[in-house]
């Protein structure tokens, strides 16, 4: 019987390998520094480390996680413009030099706690068309940027580049063009003051699934010409980005079990409604997979999490077939800001994650690790890789699958 099982994730690490190949093809000049905050699962971080990605860390704990896997400090950027002094000191003692800032107060802290830091000035962007806006909290205007560069010069600090973030879930690729243009202005300001700036960080905002209006390649087709215009390949500028949901959103699927059910009568609500209670609190947007039978009737349904909080409503008045206790619902695209943001409120434990990977994806990852991106690897149709198989399941693996366990 499976109707008494807890919620669980299935995470296809092979999907992350495919995304890495896709990134390399679409943005060949941009090195990805994975945003650990998006999903800090150790297996995810280790997979990306093997593939050669860098890492965007926002805290001491994230830096420790990445370094415990063996990632050198040169592949880490401490991309949090507002840091505790104690954590700046930890970065210094750990050899992490690249870090962002956007205020004079931050400059003063770094001057005291990490004077040899390689600072990256974060500028503000127009993120009005992003799902999650960030410029309301982070980023310096162009006018403020000049003042900050002058102050950094007085403090004898090294400014090595510029960063920006157009917001998570960007829906307008032209936002990148304006931000890249603004970054060029700040580079020119820095040159006037004598700074040797060589790093451009174009942040995140890249979609992680296909159920979005703006596709990944639609964004990159706008970014690449802008980079070539403002930071041509012969300019000597290193370009990085901070993708998060791009890498992990589609890799995770969540299975939840219905643990209780209540029927709300028509006279109470104006329509028949079924309320179901699942064994997991879902805190991020996703696709709901329910496969009703052809003759099933649909009802207005609400799905609630297991906690005692009245705000714990996952789905409100969504037409679905009537579910029974013990039924399962699958939520796709659950890899971004779910595992990392999960709560143990009321003592409910986080779901177990079952990692899977196909043999071809495993072999491709090892090839990249050992030899880098070869021409034949770039030309491989990663979408044709077979469905992955779980090593935890105990089933016999088909000829195309293998146990691809990653020590975590």
UniProtKB/TrEMBL annotation:
Answer yes or no on keyword Lyase: yes
List the molecular function annotations (GO) for this entry: ornithine decarboxylase activity
- What cellular component GO annotations does this protein have? cytoplasm
**What Enzyme Commission number(s) apply to this enzyme?**
4.1.1.17
SUPFAM superfamilies for the chain: Alanine racemase C-terminal domain-like, PLP-binding barrel
This chain's source organism reads Lamprotornis superbus
List each copy of the Orn/DAP/Arg decarboxylase 2 C-terminal domain by range: 9-335
Q: What is this protein called?
A: ornithine decarboxylase
User: Which pathway is it part of?
Assistant: Amine and polyamine biosynthesis; putrescine biosynthesis via L-ornithine pathway; putrescine from L-ornithine: step 1/1
| Keywords recorded for this protein, A-Z | Decarboxylase, Lyase, Phosphoprotein, Polyamine biosynthesis, Pyridoxal phosphate
Describe the task this protein carries out.
Catalyzes the first and rate-limiting step of polyamine biosynthesis that converts ornithine into putrescine, which is the precursor for the polyamines, spermidine and spermine. Polyamines are essential for cell proliferation and are implicated in cellular processes, ranging from DNA replication to apoptosis.
Under the heading CDD domains, the entry gives: PLPDE_III_ODC
- GO annotations under biological process? putrescine biosynthetic process from arginine, via ornithine
Q: Where is the Orn/DAP/Arg decarboxylase 2 N-terminal domain?
A: 13-249
Q: Where does the record place the catalytic residues?
A: 308
Q: Which Gene3D superfamilies match?
A: Alanine racemase (3.20.20.10), Lyase, Ornithine Decarboxylase, Chain A, domain 1 (2.40.37.10)
The UniProt entry's sequence similarity note says: Belongs to the Orn/Lys/Arg decarboxylase class-II family.
Q: Which InterPro entries match?
A: Ala_racemase/Decarboxylase_C, De-COase2_C, De-COase2_CS, De-COase2_N, De-COase2_pyr-phos_BS, Orn/DAP/Arg_de-COase, Orn_de-COase, PLP-binding_barrel
Residue numbers of N6-(pyridoxal phosphate)lysine PTMs? 37
User: What catalytic activity does the UniProt entry give for this protein?
Assistant: L-ornithine + H(+) = putrescine + CO2
* Required co-factors: pyridoxal 5'-phosphate
């Amino acid at each position: 019987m499976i109707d008494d099982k807890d919620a669980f994730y299935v995470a296809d690490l092979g999907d992350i390998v495919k995304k890495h190949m896709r990134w390399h093809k679409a943005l060949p000049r941009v090195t990805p520094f994975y945003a650990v905050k998006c999903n800090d699962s150790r297996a995810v971080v280790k997979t990306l480390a093997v593939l050669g990605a860098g890492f965007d860390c926002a805290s001491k704990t994230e830096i420790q996680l990445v370094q415990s896997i063996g990632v050198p400090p040169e592949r880490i950027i401490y991309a949090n413009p507002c840091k505790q002094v104690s954590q700046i000191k930890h970065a210094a003692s750990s050899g992490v030099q690249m870090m962002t800032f956007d205020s004079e107060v931050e400059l003063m802290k770094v001057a005291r706690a990490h004077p040899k830091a390689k600072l990256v000035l974060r500028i503000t962007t127009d993120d009005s068309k992003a799902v999650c806006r960030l410029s309301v909290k982070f980023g310096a205007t162009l006018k403020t940027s000049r003042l900050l560069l002058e102050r950094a010069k007085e403090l004898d600090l090294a400014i090595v580049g510029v960063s920006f973030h157009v917001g998570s879930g960007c829906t307008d690729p032209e936002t990148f063009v304006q931000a890249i243009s603004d970054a060029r202005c700040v580079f020119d300001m820095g040159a006037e003051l004598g700074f040797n700036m060589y790093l451009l960080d174009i942040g995140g905002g890249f979609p992680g699934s296909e159920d979005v209006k703006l596709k990944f390649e639609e964004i990159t087709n706008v970014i690449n010409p802008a980079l070539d215009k403002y930071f041509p390949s012969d300019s000597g500028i290193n370009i990085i980005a901070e993708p998060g949901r791009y890498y992990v959103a589609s890799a995770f699927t969540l299975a939840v079990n219905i643990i209780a059910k209540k029927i709300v009568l028509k006279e109470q609500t104006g329509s028949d409604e079924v309320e179901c209670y699942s064994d997991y609190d879902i805190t991020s947007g996703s696709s709901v997979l329910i496969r009703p039978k052809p003759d099933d009737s649909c009802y207005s349904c609400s799905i609630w999490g297991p906690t005692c909080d009245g705000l714990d409503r996952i789905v409100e008045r969504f037409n679905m077939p009537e579910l029974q206790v013990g039924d399962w619902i699958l939520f796709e695209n659950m890899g971004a800001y779910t595992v990392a943001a999960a709560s143990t409120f009321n003592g409910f434990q986080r779901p177990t994650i079952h990692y899977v990977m196909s043999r071809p994806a495993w072999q491709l990852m090892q090839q990249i690790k050992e030899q880098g991106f070869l021409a034949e690897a770039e030309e491989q149709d990663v979408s044709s890789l077979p469905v992955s198989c779980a090593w935890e399941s105990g089933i016999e693996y088909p000829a195309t699958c293998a146990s691809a366990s990653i020590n975590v």
